[in-house]
Structure formats: structure tokens, C-alpha cells
Amino acid sequence: xxxxxxxxxxxxxxxxxxxxxxxxxxxxxxxxxxxxxxxxxxxxxxxxxxxxxxxxxxxxxxxxxxxxxxxxxxxxxxxxxxxxxxxxxxxxxxxxxxxxxxxxxxxxxxxx
Amino acid sequence: xxxxxxxxxxxxxxxxxxxxxxxxxxxxxxxxxxxxxxxxxxxxxxxxxxxxxxxxxxxxxxxxxxxxxxxxxxxxxxxxxxxxxxxxxxxxxxxxxxxxxxxxxxxxxxxxxxxxxxxxxxxxxxxxxxxxxxxxxxxxxxxxxxxxxxxxxxxxxxxxxxxxxxxxxxxxxxxxxxxxxxxxxxxxxxxxxxxxxxxxxxxxxxxxxxxxxxxxxxxxxxxxxxxxxxxxxxxxxxxxxxxxxxxxxxxxxxxxxxxxxxxxxxxxxxxxxxxxxxxxxxxxxxxxxxxxxxxxxxxxxxxxxxxxxxxxxxxxxxxxxxxxxxxxxxxxxxxxxxxxxxxxxxxxxxxxxxxxxxxxxxxxxxxxxxxxxxxxxxxxxxxxxxxxxxxxxxxxxxxxxxxxxxxxxxxxxxxxxxxxxxxxxxxxxxxxxxxxxxxxxxxxxxxxxxxxxxxxxxxxxxxxxxxxxxxxxxxxxxxxxxxxxxxxxxxxxxxxxxxxxxxxxxxxxxxxxxxxxxxxxxxxxxxxxxxxxxxxxxxxxxxxxxxxxxxxxxxxxxxxxxxxxxxxxxxxxxxxxxxxxxxxxxxxxxxxxxxxxxxxxxxxxxxxxxxxxxxxxxxxxxxxxxxxxxxxxxxxxxxxxxxxxxxxxxxxxxxxxxxxxxxxxxxxxxxxxxxxxxxxxxxxxxxxxxxxxxxxxxxxxxxxxxxxxxxxxxxxxxxxxxxxxxxxxxxxxxxxxxxxxxxxxxxxxxxxxxxxxxxxxxxxxxxxxxxxxxxxxxxxxxxxxxxxxxxxxxxxxxxxxxxxxxxxxxxxxxxxxxxxxxxxxxxxxxxxxxxxxxxxxxxxxxxxxxxxxxxxxxxxx
Lengths: 112, 861
Prior knowledge:
Strand order of the largest sheet of chain A: 2-5-1-6
Shape of chain B: elongated
Distance between the termini of chain A: 9 Å
Strand content of chain B: 5-15%
Number of helices of chain B: 38
Oligomer: heterodimer
Strand order of the largest sheet of chain B: 10-11-13-12-16-17-15-14
Helix content of chain B: 40-55%
């Protein structure tokens, strides 16, 4: 089992969700987030005053999938979230030791 | 020791419970079911207690078995807990410990959620704040079995000591628990999936009325037929829920609503309503319970919402009502020519009373409410539509507690009399995954949320909260925003797929009846039509220039953008208490900021070409049959902004004015508004027009709020100035209005010297600004292919627009488009300029910047 964390543009959330469902991913957790990578922020002027926009709105997704599903899920996210511009986001993948379904104590991949 | 073989009891209990359920399914009477279950439990407990006495005769004396709480009231719902007090004269409870345990065990084996408590008499006579619910449960007590003498003593001590000595503390506790429970449900009964027991207007509130009555000096609601009908309905509905869910579940979810409608729960007659109609019945009954709760609290001297202290404001003494003891009270009827005249039938008085409620937060007294409700047909006959009604409605909407007043008006039926269109969304349940409240309540919560923004933000509040607060406080005519809020979802009552369009159709009819100013009406319509636009834009990339440009093009003006930003914030917040996260709120503010920067950027570029006539042009032409050719010539070349920000009727009026140049080359239309006045000049373009208008208004002491100037392909200009009348010259002197228009015309035509008129105003003292605004001058050569955009941001002080526009004229810059706006004490003026038909080059920009800085400084000095 592996955990995929993806930070994407909020406007791409619906497309990414659809792509993941299409790829066979059952569960996703979504967080509203702010941050920046190489995109950094920028400055806005509003009615004569300057405002710094240093942390940009992002959405973070977390999903845990079987090992054989990892690449399929990654490709689904990339396919739906990529525009080719700075700010498209990042994907992080890490190993998961155990998954437990609280309702009935099932463990391992069956609990996903 | 085993006193009872539980199996026969269990069999009997289950058989009888089944009979009660079947009887309920046949008769539909919840009250019969809860009374029958209560009687069944009495019977079972008496048998079990008798068996225990037979096994240990020592417990026959000194212990009373007392039903308390709902069971004590004889109202035991199918899966409710059975609360029983084993009350001991002294310390006999210890002796009966095993008997109580066995009795409890048998009842649990029967499937009864039995909740026993053992107390000595002395523990029952004193109110214990740390266990207030126990003391409250004693208010509903009934002897079931055991020592009758002990129960008699308990009854005497509860009634004679607890309920007398501690009445004040108990009332306080009831109020605190009610407040806490109502707060959990957002202080409203209008939930899409209400909890029939705990929500405001639920059965617990009916219990509260009963308790306060027992504690003395308040009317017994049980004597009221409507209250009893409501209780019967809610009791049946709760029984239905318990049987359906097979547990103590009291939430009317959507599936349960379908089931209740299909089974006609609580209804008479044979027709099965749909779920929405059944829910309307539910809300009608819940409203009655809620009304009785308010009335009972009022007569007990208690107020449900402690956080909302009454505002200390002066209410202008008006005939017909008074503000006394924290209540708005209608005056008694008076005799006039032998006939009694009741203020409750006078729309002027009643609406002023509601405006006082909205302004102060004082509630309308119950007696006044009843009088208004009883006199609705005469009120309706006396009601006159038109500007006076809009003025009253606006006063209510802009009061800090408007939501409170509107709910009261809605409850009594006054709101539907003045806006029959509101009936379509009365207690309307529309099922979706997001909304928590009925459509009408969502509207009131939205209005509450907007008023909440007017309060100063807490220390350390995020930037968006500070900015939105400033934005709403600086609106020139906030009544328009609140009217849009009131009507924005009325279209949902028509069950269309496009409720925003339907709501706009309804709003147009309402505003026609109110004879509202065309500019104001057009703004309200645009807000309603576009009320989902900003939420939709938030789902796209708000940093993408294309997204922002498209959104700005839909909104067109800063005034509309400000109102839509505020509206969207409150609309999302009113969907559900958790719907508007700080993340979303900040994105909303960012989008508003980006759109504000974009909104004036393409005005000179996007122009009307009638050959490619879109919907807007077609709509205007449709109003001018037989004059299409002339109308097309008039429209050709105006910026799209002109068409999108004016009502079609206004554009037709402008066209008609342009056909009268032969009689009068300077066509002027003046409209005096309640908050903002408007003057429109239509003439052939010539130098200094805009600065002359600005100067003329400054000479009269008028404060320009917004202005724009557009020119068509034939050189016909439409200058529109919206201004406040600082010294109330035009408001207080009707005769001055004509002189004002003539004077402006003479100044624009050069017949009167503007400078001479202005000199009379120089040297007058000005109020010190609350916020210092630094002057910023920016040029943008990319916004248009044939002109240069100039933006001036400066302190908004009288004469500023005149100083800027006069400088432009003096240096021979031609104003192709002007867009003037103010935000609080900041003036933001945008001009698209040409010099000999060309954009400005670098040196010209430098020269103009220096000249403007000098002129602005001179005006300020």
C-alpha cells in the first residue's frame, strides 16, 4: 500500500476527482490549503493600495492505494491537473505499513 | 433472589406494544399511542414492584415509585427512555437496591430503555444546579407504585418548596438550556431536516412552555386550540419516526419526510400531499409552538437571545406605536367620529413599527402581533404600493436587526402582503447536498450575515474580513443590496432549472410596483441575475487572467462588484454554518480584488456594433417599433458597458432625448432618489462637457458618488452623474430642483460662469478625513488600441472631479470614456484619453501627471 499526496490547483479538483474515480480509486481525502513552490506569490494593487499575495490557494488530496494502483492513480492526477504552467502542483508518494477499518477491525489492503 | 419470571412479562409487553403500534398505524393518533405506552409501562412496573414487595415486604413502606420526565407527563414515545425515580422517605433506597436492579433488568429484557434514579426525599426538595435536569424532570411527576404517603410528601415538597423557593433559579436554568439547545440549531426552526424534538419549535419547546406555566404567572398554552393541534401533529410525527427507525431517532430526514407524506402523518383527509407540502404543515405547526414559546418567555420576563442586547437608539415618536420596556407596542385603538380606529390596520404605522424592530432589536409585543394578524385584511385594503412603500421596506431591510423583523413579518403574514411573491418560498424545502435551511430562512440568514459584516471586526481579524466590513459600510445605497438579498431566491418557488432568471423576473415585477428608480432597479436585477456568477468563478482558477476578465465583463461596474462580493460571502455563509471556510472567504476577496483591477480595462475597446447585434441591442430595439433605423444609429459605437449597465427603458429614454436636440441641444434629465440623486446630460460631444458638469455639481455643493461618460459613433454623449445632496438643498426645497436643472444647463452651455459659482464655495470648512488617501496616478497604454487609460486614486473631497476634468480639458485631452467611482473616502477616477485622436505618448503622460498632482493639491488646499 502507498499513500499519494497531491497538491493541485483548486480549479482542477473536479477533473482530478473524476479521473481518479475513472481509474478505480475509491476513497479520497481533500484539504483546503495555501502555499507556494517555485510559483511564489505576487503583488496585487487594489484601488491604489498594494497587497501581497504570497500564499496561493491550493487543494491537497490524500489517497492510499494498493501498490499495483499507484502508477494508474498518479497518471490520472497528472492527466487531469496538468496545464504546463508553473503552479500545477506536486505529487508525493510514500509507503504505508498498515490500514485498519475502524468499523470491523479489518486490516491490510481489504481495509482500503 | 429472583422475584419475577421475566418471560411472561416480556411476552405481554411485546404483544401490547405491537397492538399500540397497529392502533397508531390505523388511527394515526400519536397522542393515543404515547398515552397507551405510558399506561402499559405503569401496568408492567406495578406488577414488577408488587412481585418485589412479595419477595421482600420491608420495601412496601418508605419507597415511592415515581414516573418523571416524559413518562411523568404520561407521554411516552415508542422508543423514549423511561425515567423513574425511586424516592425513599429516608435511607430505604439502600434496602431496595437489589429490587430496583432486578426490576431494571426485567425492563431491559423487555427492550425498554429504563433509566432509574434513587434519591431520598431531602435530595428532591432543593434545586441542584449541577444536576438541573433531575430537578426539571421532577416538575412532571406521577405516582406509579409504592408508598403513596412518600409520594404525597414528595409532591408537597416539590410543589411547596422547590417550585416556590427555587422558581427563579429553575426558570434561569430552563432559559439557559433552551438557549443552548436553540443555538445548536442555529436559532431557527426552518431546517431542511429538522429534529422534531430539539429544534426550535419542537416538542421540547412545548415542554418549556408547560414548565414555565407550572412555575407560575404565565398563560397555559394547553388552553389554546392551535397549540393543541400543533402538539397532536408533532406527537404523531415523532411516533412515526420512532416506529420507522426502531429507535429514539427524532430527525426528519428526507426519506422520513417522504414516508410521512405518503402515510399522511398528522393530517386529516384522504389526499396524500407531496413531501414539500407535508413539510409546510410541519413548519406551520412548529411556528405555533415557537410563537407560544416566545409568548411564554415574554410573560415570564425572559428573553431568548441574550447576546443581542437592545440597541440604544432613538425611535422617532410616531403616532400609532411606542417603544417601551424593550418592546414595540401598538397604541390602543382610538375613537374617530364615533368609530374605533386601530393602528394595526394602518400600513404606515405597522411598517414603521417593524422598522423600529429592525432598528432596535426590540420585539413586537405579543398583543400587538395578535392585533396585526387579526387585522390583516384591513391592512391589505389600506396598503398602497409605490415609492412610499419602498422607503418603508428599505428602512426595515437596512435596520441592523432586519432578519429579526422580517421573520416576525413573515410569521404574521405582513411580508407576504407587501411581497406576495415571497409566498412561493414560504418554508420551502429544496433538497440538495449543501443547504441546511428552508429557502425563506436561508434568505433571512443571508440578510443577518450581511448586517453582521457591518459590525467592527474583532482585533486580529483577517484582511478579507476588514475589507468586506469596510465595503458594506461604504455602500451608498445599501437598501438595494438587501432588496436583492430578499428576492434572490424567490424564483425557486417556480421550480425552474434557472432560479436566478426566474427571481429576476419576479424582482422586476416587484420593483415596478414599488416604482423604483430605473438605475437602482437595473442594479438589483443585475445582482439577482448574476448572484451565482462569483461562486462559479471561485471554482475556476482565480489567478487566471481569462477567468478574471470574463467575470469582470459580466459584472461591469465597481458598485455591482462590491455588492456581489458581499452578497456571495453572505450567500455561501447562509447555506450552512460551515460552508464558508476562511480559505473560501480569502479566495472570494482575492477574486474581487482582481476583478476590480480588470473591470475598467477594456471599456473603450468593447463597443457596440449593431450589425452584430446581440441580445442587449435586440431588447432595446424591441421597445422602439418603427424607429429601428434611428435607434441603431444611436446605439452604434457606445461602449458595451453602457448597454449592460442601464435598463432598456433608460436607454430608450436617452434615445428619445437625443431626438430633441433641435428644441434644446442640452437635454437634461434629473431624478431625485431617496439616497442618491441622478442627473443625465445628453448632447453632442464638445470640449469641456464633462468638466463643466463636474463643476456645475460642485458649484451646487453636490458630492459625486459615481459618474460615467460615454460617446457613440455619431458623437452623441451620455454623461451620467449620481450624487448625494450634501446640504439637502434639493430634498428640502422642491422649488430649487427646477432652478438646479436650469442652472446646470446654463453652466454646461457656457451661459453662466462656473468659476464664479465655484468661487462662492471656496474657503468653506471641510470635515477632516478619517482615512488619509495618498494620491496615485497611473497610465495604462495596453487597455485600449486607440486611447490611453488614466487612473487617479485620491482623497475624495469636494471639487476633486472638477479639478481633474478641468486639467484634462485645459491641456486639450479628449475624454473618450469616463468612469468615476468612490469607495468610502477614496475616489477612483478612470479616463480613456486621446490627444488629437491618438493615445498619449510618454512625455504627455509625464506632463499630465505633474499637472494633475498640482491641481489635486490646489483643490485640497
